[in-house]
TrEMBL record:
<dbReference type="GO" id="GO:0000160">
    <property type="term" value="P:phosphorelay signal transduction system"/>
</dbReference>
<keyword id="KW-0597">Phosphoprotein</keyword>
<keyword id="KW-0238">DNA-binding</keyword>
<dbReference type="GO" id="GO:0003677">
    <property type="term" value="F:DNA binding"/>
</dbReference>
<dbReference type="InterPro" id="IPR011006">
    <property type="entry name" value="CheY-like_superfamily"/>
</dbReference>
<feature type="domain" description="Response regulatory">
    <location>
        <begin position="5"/>
        <end position="121"/>
    </location>
</feature>
<dbReference type="InterPro" id="IPR058245">
    <property type="entry name" value="NreC/VraR/RcsB-like_REC"/>
</dbReference>
<feature type="modified residue" description="4-aspartylphosphate">
    <location>
        <position position="56"/>
    </location>
</feature>
<dbReference type="InterPro" id="IPR039420">
    <property type="entry name" value="WalR-like"/>
</dbReference>
<dbReference type="InterPro" id="IPR001789">
    <property type="entry name" value="Sig_transdc_resp-reg_receiver"/>
</dbReference>
<dbReference type="GO" id="GO:0006355">
    <property type="term" value="P:regulation of DNA-templated transcription"/>
</dbReference>
<dbReference type="Pfam" id="PF00196">
    <property type="entry name" value="GerE"/>
</dbReference>
<dbReference type="Pfam" id="PF00072">
    <property type="entry name" value="Response_reg"/>
</dbReference>
<dbReference type="InterPro" id="IPR016032">
    <property type="entry name" value="Sig_transdc_resp-reg_C-effctor"/>
</dbReference>
<dbReference type="InterPro" id="IPR036388">
    <property type="entry name" value="WH-like_DNA-bd_sf"/>
</dbReference>
<feature type="domain" description="HTH luxR-type">
    <location>
        <begin position="148"/>
        <end position="213"/>
    </location>
</feature>
<dbReference type="InterPro" id="IPR000792">
    <property type="entry name" value="Tscrpt_reg_LuxR_C"/>
</dbReference>
Amino acid sequence: MSDLSILLVDDHPIVREGYRRLLERWPGYRVVAEAGDAAAAYEAYRKFRPDVTVMDLALPGAGGLEALRHIRQWDKRARVLIFSMHTGAAFALKAFEAGAMGYVTKNSDADELLRAVACIAAATPGSTRMALSNDIALEVAAERLAGKTSPVDRLAPRETEILRLVATGMTTQAIADALCLSPKTVQNYTYQIKAKLGVETDALLVWTALRAGLVAWA
C-alpha cells in the first residue's frame, strides 16, 4: 500500500513542524509539501496533487476559504480537511459550502485530527461523508436544533471571505491585491454583502463579522 500524501497549510512554521511530526507518526502518512498562505497552498496542490490537504483558515491575506475555493475549482475531487482555531458553527458551515470534507478544531485531541484524515482519505470521490471534531459537531448540532441562523448564512464563501478581510481592517486595494480582483469588483462585492446583511456602514459589517466569529474580538 502506498503512502498517504498530505499537504499541510498553516502560516506558522513552528506549528507546521509540530503537526508534520504528529501526522508522520501515523504509519503510511507522509507530508509531501507545506504552505504558509493561500497562493502557496494552491501552487503546492497543483504541483504535488496530495491525497489529503490539511488547512488552517487563518492565513495572511486571502484566507483558507479562498484557498479551498481555488483548489476545489481546479480539482473537484480534492480532499480538504480544515484544521482551525475557529470553533463557531458559521465558519465550519462556510468551509463545507466551499467544498471541505472535514473540520477539526485546534482544541481537539491529536487523535481526532488523525481520525479525520483517515476518514477523508477513505472517502470515495463524490462522497458526502464528512469528518468533524466532537466540539464542532456539537456546536453545529446545537445551533441547528435551536433553530438559530447566522447572518453570514446568506453569503457565498467568497463574500464571507471579503467580509472577513473588511473586518480585519484591510483596505479595498489590499483586498483586491490579496484576491487578485480589481478594486471595483471588491467594491461591488461589498455592496452586495451589505445588501444581503441589511447593513449600511462598514462599522456594522465589522460588528456582524465579530458576532459571527469570522474575526476574533480584540
